[in-house]
Automatic annotation (TrEMBL):
Protein name: EDD domain protein, DegV family
GO molecular function: lipid binding
Record's keyword terms, sorted: Lipid-binding
Transcription regulation among keywords: no
Database matches in InterPro entries: DegV, DegV_C, DegV_domain_contain
Source species taxonomy: Bacteria, Bacillati, Bacillota, Bacilli, Bacillales
Keyword tRNA processing appears in the UniProt entry: no
PROSITE patterns in alphabetical order: DEGV
Amino acid sequence: MRKIILSTESGADLPDDLAEKYEVQVVPMHIIMDGKDYLDGSLPVQDIYDYYRHTKKIPSTTSTNAHEYQEFFATIRDNFPNCIIIHVGYTSKASSSFQNAVIAAEEFEDIFLIDALNVTGGLAAIVLYAADLLEKEPGIEPERLVEKIQAIVPKSRLAFIPGNLEFLKAGGRVSNMASLIGALLKIKPCIELKDGKLVSTKKYRGKMSRATEKLFSDYLNEFDIDRQQLYFIYSIGLDERIKQRMEEVAKGNGFQNIRWIQAGGMISTHSGAGGFGVAGLEH
């Protein structure tokens, strides 16, 4: 029986312990700071925020290119000879990374590519669903596993509040005027993934502590999320009291397993410090 190996991008923010547990292979995306190219994960996220504080410049990001994917897939095959690779990729609607994976995969056999149409915890939720399924059914046919992953893609729901609108604006996610109004009125936009695109759907006023609870309440009202597993996403700088409170609220709503995921460099460059998000899978 041939071994199935799962892979994804660093933009999934998959925790290291879970990547190791399930042997998920992660290819880094890129962060550009002061003209220097850094592999996502190779520098502390705090350096991104320190750079912004000192220079008022926000780093940019770039996707994994086709050549890097070729090397990535080749390395997986070297480490796991004769394996079947199932790559669950960062949304193609916000990055060229998935298309580059498609180009690279033409050089290989037995690689399945799935556009997760999601990012950070929403992407991680899909990857971990696949990993858990593979662990429970080690003899599952790869085509069947791919079908199950594809079926869960539209059920992965992500919503988040960025910590800094300037970071979101720099990434081209909101207009200058929207950012200015948000700063003046202390409006915090809710960003959701809709058909793979980042869309501002709701706006919350007031402190982050109030906004996070309202976000979570709206999230649960809109989506029938499986209570078995929930993912909270945070970027460095989120108040610990907010984290404690949100965990209490989640447990009060019947969630059995709550996992906190720290936004890595790729996501933090677009959301800023102190951001909060939630991800889960619908029934």
